[in-house]
Amino acid sequence: MNKIINKILILSGVALGSMMQSCVSEAPFDGNAEGSLSICAEINSDVIKTRAENLNENTTLREQCVVYIESNKGVVRKFIGLDNIPTSPISLKQGHYIAEAWTGDSVSASFTSKFYRGKEEFEIAGQDNKSLLLKCNIANVITSVNQDALQLGLKNLEVTFSHSRGSLTFNEDNIPTEKGYFMMPNADTDLQYKVTGERSDGSVIEHTGVIEGVQRAHEYVMNISSENEDNILGGGLIKIKIEDIPVIEDTVNIFGRPTVLGEGYDIDEQIIGNPSAEPGSFNAFVDRIVYIRAYVDIYRVQLVAGQNFEGTSIDFSDFGNFTKLEDSAKRQLEDMGITLEEPVERFDAVTGIRMEEMRITFKKKFFDNLPLKDTEYQLEIMVRDDQNPSKSTTKVLRIANTDEAVEEKPTVETIDAPDPLTEPMAILAHSATLYGMLKDENATDYGIRYRKLGDEEWIDVPANKTRAGNLKYSVNLTGLEAGTVYEYKSFEPGYDKCEIKTFTTESYYTMPNASFEQWSTYSASTMLGTKNVTLPWSEGNKSASFWGSGNEGAATANMTLTDKSTDMKNSGMYSARLESKSALGMLAAGNIFVGEYVRTDGTNGVLSLGRTYNASHPSALKVWANYRPASGVSVKSEPEGGLPEGFAGGKDHAQIYVALTTEPVEIRTKSSDLKVFNANDPVVLAYGQVTWTDDFGPDGALQEIEIPITYYDRAKTAAAKYLVIVVSASKYGDYFSGASGSVMYLDDFELVYE
To answer: Average pLDDT of 635-645?
Structure first.
């Protein structure tokens, strides 16, 4: 069995013993939290042949890695790039949480792109300081072909693995070296395969099959052998066997940059003292320890004194690397009031992974000997490790020893713009809710000032004075431009030095082929052979098309339900014409939807609704339409709750609905395995619909209709990833109920933003 090494490890926790208990900095989160989670380590990945390749790949994986922490209310923390995970504890309220992470490229089918995913659940109780080990394993289904197949004497041997959204072909050139990586669509549980080649007598072999119920993190190895070794060259049979090999996990450690912390203080805060001042006017200077940690060898530590050290005796330019100092240099530093500990080896208590740590102590003597200055001293501490010596972690000690040098503390503070993944409805196309923080609870006049990036004039907006038991306040901005970057900052009379931050309003989403000007065909296998299927897209690729329809299912009966038309249109050359038809006593509804017709199951369809979406929040869906229902409805089955009174034998009904969802939605029409769209499903964040029970629009012309979209409460904490639109000339077509001859025309879909 071949060993497959495919694991990423994200180490999260503070299980480093009492050594880390004193490494603290101020946590920038909710002060009412009852426990915390500390994340202090990085990432591991695939073993690659050379060190340079290893570093390059894992730098990318580390930068791409997304880590979420979710409660039952949705995402509460999100980090993009492991270098952006804070070293200080993350404050979390008491409760149950799920930590998820993923990285890599989620590609339908690839020989090179792999995707990794991990998930762990944990509890936070009062005063917990939780440790968490989150492992990201490969999420792909892996395929390969045993190279013994090349010894059978077959010419032009090709093996193709596929699912509904992609395929990979192995041939004589890549069978010995390649593996295929598949991300399975939600609607697919099986992989298809096809083997083709030529025997020595010129006869062609072709064999197809299905690998059922494939699982991620499993490799499916195709073994091709001869049924009769004596005859294979002359035309004997071949035998195919699929071997299912679970991926064997192994680890190579590739971590991010070193950590530099203040031991017992926040290294990012100004160090204040003045030995010549009256007692109590400043805190007296005390020893300050800088703690350094790396998960591989500490390669270089360097101190750089800023310009304000000119005229002092402090100069580190001749010292070079502080990890390799001679004894004489160490004595010089001790004379300045700086002592070093040699790097020492430790092992992480959670994982047993080796790391190095060291400490630099700046004595009271060092601070006391600095001449009084009316500006702060800045001393850079740069640390590099042996993993990637070209990248460093830099922290700055900022030292103030006069009143003039002490930084002015803000009375208000600007808070980062809401994260669209955790507060997705805070910033919309034309409005935004922003937050500031008061440093003085007695303040009475404060708010947010903003401007479009590049403008000179600021616009002041007073804050909402009602605060929820803390000093955080909110401001609502309106009249903004879509897809535009704005600057903003908190303000309060007498203080206008707050940090300027930015936010970007949502962009409009424009639907591909919304006017139905693009049409083509593709080939599909049916029970009656290969058929050409009409597709609303410029190329015959149903997986690439934004729109899908039930045409593939109807092709078995040589019917086309949805096609282009010049009869009625609002713009361009074409509109889409949907017509419900009957064949073999069964109704097939004229339909079109955002998504893909996956496959036909007997005489039933399996659909995947939804295409990836930009997470914006439209207020309505607008479309030009005309509908003429046929009479004489036939009913095969009914939905839960039954059909409208008088529907059977009466006029057909039509429906258009729109939804924003967190994932694609699978639809199955087979009665024994029925799955229809449910607007109350937790994956649905917003929904709107219109049902027509009679004619819509004037004879021979389209009429505009706007369908309002209503957002559920869960849309406040979850981002929409998929747009779903479904149109049917027979609303109950999923139940094969309706009237043949019902016709609808559609043109110019558009999302409306208030």
So the answer is: 89
